[in-house]
């Protein structure tokens, strides 16, 4: 116990240095390529239909295979990461994604492509969760939110990257090159991770491997002292009751104080998924149903999505300035209000303007939920399984959300869709504010003991 808390205190007093930047670089690079492969599917499907390789039913199977893989990966990746280590989990899933994406470039038919798409999804679902959750264990609490948000900022450039590269590569070469580029890139990340992705000293100490944890910490501290030409201060470690333990059974997520965190995390991710998939996926359809032609609908959607990277960038600047519960719940309230206001607009300039602002706040919340708050909630011995489980639940909600939206849109219209969404988001905001725990600038060891 004391050794575990001492390791955490030593990590907390480290100044940001090349050690942190390398961890940030390899995880952000991997997340960017993972997003590239995920969004490349949307670009590739249109080409596959046009050349007779696929049809609407096979397209649906292709998309469902990815979502099923995400679900499986989120669940299994947590167990691998908590039992075998952050480094092994990260590298194993990089290898799964890299090999399956590369194999997808050489498939003989659509059925094999769907199979490898499912494998890709399994690796990507685990990789995203492992990347965000592991990163929290390396960064000091004082700047943890800002740097976790920066991971999200890099990763969320992938939709524009895949669209830009896809236009050129598919036209001049082949759709297969999209998977080959992504697969080779991920394999390069796998090679780099062997050198730059260090095992978490917190995880090592929590598993009782004190000698290895101490060796890792000594190497990190020596490197930082040499880089900054300083002598690191003695860490301040305050013993805490009920801290970290090795008895990290999965069922602990559903007992006592951990159950509260599990339910809050599920609520946070449900809010993210229902708003994300309602707003971003259905905006073009709602435009067309409102009488706007398809071409203009696509253009307006593209302009509105500029708000996504801008929103995440602003989040990196301000997320550590406000209490987490207040920040997240306020964003949900704003999105709920903007959704309704947006739905009653009739002028195209108003639809575009309110939509752009709504996307801006939506992606601030996406950054808060997936990259910052949920990974912080768990003690080290349960961090990846906790994050993995709640992300898996969020994925399942994402599967069923389109059917609910379609039903409401068909029977009652777009205003009702956004009214229902607004009510759900307000409920989620209240749960987060009143039942969530505060994690801003709090060490992971202290968070483990919060109630």
UniProtKB/TrEMBL annotation:
<comment type="similarity">
    <text>Belongs to the major facilitator superfamily. Sugar transporter (TC 2.A.1.1) family.</text>
</comment>
<dbReference type="GO" id="GO:0022857">
    <property type="term" value="F:transmembrane transporter activity"/>
</dbReference>
<feature type="transmembrane region" description="Helical">
    <location>
        <begin position="326"/>
        <end position="345"/>
    </location>
</feature>
<dbReference type="InterPro" id="IPR020846">
    <property type="entry name" value="MFS_dom"/>
</dbReference>
<feature type="transmembrane region" description="Helical">
    <location>
        <begin position="151"/>
        <end position="173"/>
    </location>
</feature>
<protein>
    <submittedName>
        <fullName>MFS transporter</fullName>
    </submittedName>
</protein>
<keyword id="KW-0812">Transmembrane</keyword>
<dbReference type="Pfam" id="PF07690">
    <property type="entry name" value="MFS_1"/>
</dbReference>
<keyword id="KW-0813">Transport</keyword>
<keyword id="KW-0472">Membrane</keyword>
<feature type="transmembrane region" description="Helical">
    <location>
        <begin position="351"/>
        <end position="374"/>
    </location>
</feature>
<feature type="transmembrane region" description="Helical">
    <location>
        <begin position="179"/>
        <end position="197"/>
    </location>
</feature>
<keyword id="KW-1003">Cell membrane</keyword>
<feature type="transmembrane region" description="Helical">
    <location>
        <begin position="298"/>
        <end position="319"/>
    </location>
</feature>
<feature type="transmembrane region" description="Helical">
    <location>
        <begin position="21"/>
        <end position="40"/>
    </location>
</feature>
<feature type="transmembrane region" description="Helical">
    <location>
        <begin position="386"/>
        <end position="409"/>
    </location>
</feature>
<feature type="transmembrane region" description="Helical">
    <location>
        <begin position="92"/>
        <end position="114"/>
    </location>
</feature>
<dbReference type="InterPro" id="IPR011701">
    <property type="entry name" value="MFS"/>
</dbReference>
<dbReference type="GO" id="GO:0016020">
    <property type="term" value="C:membrane"/>
</dbReference>
<feature type="domain" description="Major facilitator superfamily (MFS) profile">
    <location>
        <begin position="23"/>
        <end position="440"/>
    </location>
</feature>
<keyword id="KW-1133">Transmembrane helix</keyword>
<feature type="transmembrane region" description="Helical">
    <location>
        <begin position="120"/>
        <end position="139"/>
    </location>
</feature>
<feature type="transmembrane region" description="Helical">
    <location>
        <begin position="60"/>
        <end position="80"/>
    </location>
</feature>
<feature type="transmembrane region" description="Helical">
    <location>
        <begin position="263"/>
        <end position="286"/>
    </location>
</feature>
<feature type="transmembrane region" description="Helical">
    <location>
        <begin position="415"/>
        <end position="435"/>
    </location>
</feature>
<dbReference type="InterPro" id="IPR036259">
    <property type="entry name" value="MFS_trans_sf"/>
</dbReference>
């Amino acid at each position: 116990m004391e050794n575990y808390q001492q390791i955490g205190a030593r990590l907390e007093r480290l100044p940001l240095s090349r050690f942190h930047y390398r961890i940030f670089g390899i995880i952000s690079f991997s997340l960017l390529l993972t997003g590239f492969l995920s969004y490349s599917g949307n670009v590739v499907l249109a080409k596959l239909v046009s050349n007779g390789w696929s049809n609407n039913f096979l397209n649906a199977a292709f998309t469902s295979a990815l979502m099923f893989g995400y679900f499986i990966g989120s669940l299994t990746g947590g167990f691998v990461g908590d039992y075998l280590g952050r480094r092994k989990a990260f590298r194993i899933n990089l290898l799964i994604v890299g090999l399956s994406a590369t194999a997808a470039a050489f498939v003989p038919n659509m059925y094999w492509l769907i199979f490898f798409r499912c494998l890709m999804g399994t690796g990507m679902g685990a990789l995203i969760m492992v990347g965000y959750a592991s990163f929290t264990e390396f960064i000091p609490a004082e700047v943890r939110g800002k740097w976790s948000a920066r991971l999200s900022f890099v990763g969320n450039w992938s939709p524009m990257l895949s669209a830009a590269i896809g236009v050129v590569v598919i036209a001049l070469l082949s759709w297969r090159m999209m998977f080959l580029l992504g697969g080779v890139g991920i394999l390069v990340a796998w090679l780099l991770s062997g050198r730059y992705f260090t095992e978490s000293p917190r995880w090592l100490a929590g598993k009782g491997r004190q000698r290895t944890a101490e060796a890792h910490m000594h190497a990190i501290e020596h490197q930082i002292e040499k880089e900054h030409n300083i002598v690191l201060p003695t860490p301040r470690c305050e013993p805490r009751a009920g801290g970290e333990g090795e008895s990290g059974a999965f069922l602990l997520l559903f007992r006592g104080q951990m159950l509260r965190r599990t339910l809050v995390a599920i609520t946070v991710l449900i809010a993210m998924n229902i708003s994300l998939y309602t707003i971003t996926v259905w905006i073009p359809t709602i435009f067309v149903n409102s009488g706007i032609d398809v071409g203009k609908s696509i253009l307006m959607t593209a302009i509105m999505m500029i708000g996504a990277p801008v929103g995440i960038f602003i989040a990196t600047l301000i997320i550590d300035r406000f209490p987490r519960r207040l920040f997240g719940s306020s964003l949900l309230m704003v999105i709920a209000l903007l959704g309704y206001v947006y739905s009653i607009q009739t002028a195209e300039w108003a639809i575009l303007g309110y939509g752009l602002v709504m996307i801006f706040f939506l992606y601030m919340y996406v950054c808060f939920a997936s990259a910052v708050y949920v990974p912080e909630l768990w003690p080290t011995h349960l961090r990846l399984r906790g994050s993995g489980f709640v992300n898996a639940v969020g994925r399942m909600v994402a599967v069923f959300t389109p059917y609910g939206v379609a039903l409401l849109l068909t029977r009652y219209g777009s205003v009702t869709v956004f009214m229902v969404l607004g009510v759900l988001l307000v409920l989620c905001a209240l749960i987060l504010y009143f039942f969530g725990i505060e994690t801003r600038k709090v060490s992971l060891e202290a968070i483990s003991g919060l109630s």
